Amino acid sequence: MLNSIGSNHATLDAAIIDLDGTMVDTLGDFAEALNRMLSDLALPAIAAPAIEQMVGKGSEHLLRSVLHHVLDQAGKAPTAIEVDAFYARAWPSYQQHYLSINGDCAQVYPGVVAGLQALRQAGLRLACLTNKPAAFALPLLRAKGLDGYFEQVFGGDSFARKKPDPLPLLKTCEALQTEPARTLMVGDSSNDAQAARAAGCPVVLVTYGYNHGLPVQAVDADGYVDSLELLLA
Ligand SMILES: O=C(O)COP(=O)(O)O
Ligand SMILES: [Mg+2]
């Protein structure tokens, strides 16, 4: 079990870094955009702790989970068809609101900048791979001054399937021209770890992100770190 990749970094050529819950605490952005959307739909608001458990599988899953939750809380026990009917109106509203507040209620976690600098100094090529849409990810990285560290940035809509499917990791390795076995995945959830295992990438998880409300140490990974700065410690 690794608490950091330490001297093992000699066996690595690249790292793929997750965004939400790993580099940026975006829960405030999610809460703001989702509650503006719910207000447009004349539905009740949702609290941040409930949202936190729904983050990690991309925007479509998040919106369907939120709609199901608020309709259920309102005593409506919604069917999939009822959720679908709201979803058609929810998606354009969410997109508009998310882009208008993107980054305003989000903070870069401590140790992220130092960690990215250390990875670059160790000679690793870096890509950002998130399940959020690329159109949300790129402006967020720019707004937080993180875009310059990455040779490639891919979102949940960049490939045919999202994490936990291995496809986005394999495609990212292809874009970086690296072998999966020499490409470290760094994430915060079971989606990152399962995708990495299936792609053949080593994987380290941060202990402070979103993992559907479950302890991240219970997820099968090669190591766990409290800060990106500790990755090469
Ligand atoms: O949008 C999400 O569901 C989370 O995205 P992530 O892959 O950056 O954690
Ligand atoms: Mg994440």
UniProtKB/TrEMBL annotation:
<comment type="function">
    <text>Specifically catalyzes the dephosphorylation of 2-phosphoglycolate. Is involved in the dissimilation of the intracellular 2-phosphoglycolate formed during the DNA repair of 3'-phosphoglycolate ends, a major class of DNA lesions induced by oxidative stress.</text>
</comment>
<dbReference type="Pfam" id="PF00702">
    <property type="entry name" value="Hydrolase"/>
</dbReference>
<dbReference type="GO" id="GO:0019253">
    <property type="term" value="P:reductive pentose-phosphate cycle"/>
</dbReference>
<keyword id="KW-0113">Calvin cycle</keyword>
<comment type="similarity">
    <text>Belongs to the HAD-like hydrolase superfamily. CbbY/CbbZ/Gph/YieH family.</text>
</comment>
<dbReference type="GO" id="GO:0005829">
    <property type="term" value="C:cytosol"/>
</dbReference>
<dbReference type="InterPro" id="IPR023198">
    <property type="entry name" value="PGP-like_dom2"/>
</dbReference>
<feature type="active site" description="Nucleophile">
    <location>
        <position position="18"/>
    </location>
</feature>
<feature type="binding site">
    <location>
        <position position="20"/>
    </location>
    <ligand>
        <name>Mg(2+)</name>
    </ligand>
</feature>
<dbReference type="GO" id="GO:0008967">
    <property type="term" value="F:phosphoglycolate phosphatase activity"/>
</dbReference>
<dbReference type="InterPro" id="IPR006439">
    <property type="entry name" value="HAD-SF_hydro_IA"/>
</dbReference>
<dbReference type="GO" id="GO:0046295">
    <property type="term" value="P:glycolate biosynthetic process"/>
</dbReference>
<keyword id="KW-0378">Hydrolase</keyword>
<protein>
    <recommendedName>
        <fullName>Phosphoglycolate phosphatase</fullName>
        <ecNumber>3.1.3.18</ecNumber>
    </recommendedName>
</protein>
<keyword id="KW-0119">Carbohydrate metabolism</keyword>
<comment type="subunit">
    <text>Homotrimer.</text>
</comment>
<keyword id="KW-0479">Metal-binding</keyword>
<keyword id="KW-0460">Magnesium</keyword>
<dbReference type="InterPro" id="IPR037512">
    <property type="entry name" value="PGPase_prok"/>
</dbReference>
<comment type="pathway">
    <text>Organic acid metabolism; glycolate biosynthesis; glycolate from 2-phosphoglycolate: step 1/1.</text>
</comment>
<feature type="binding site">
    <location>
        <position position="188"/>
    </location>
    <ligand>
        <name>Mg(2+)</name>
    </ligand>
</feature>
<dbReference type="InterPro" id="IPR050155">
    <property type="entry name" value="HAD-like_hydrolase_sf"/>
</dbReference>
<dbReference type="GO" id="GO:0046872">
    <property type="term" value="F:metal ion binding"/>
</dbReference>
<feature type="binding site">
    <location>
        <position position="18"/>
    </location>
    <ligand>
        <name>Mg(2+)</name>
    </ligand>
</feature>
<dbReference type="InterPro" id="IPR036412">
    <property type="entry name" value="HAD-like_sf"/>
</dbReference>
<dbReference type="GO" id="GO:0006281">
    <property type="term" value="P:DNA repair"/>
</dbReference>
<dbReference type="InterPro" id="IPR023214">
    <property type="entry name" value="HAD_sf"/>
</dbReference>
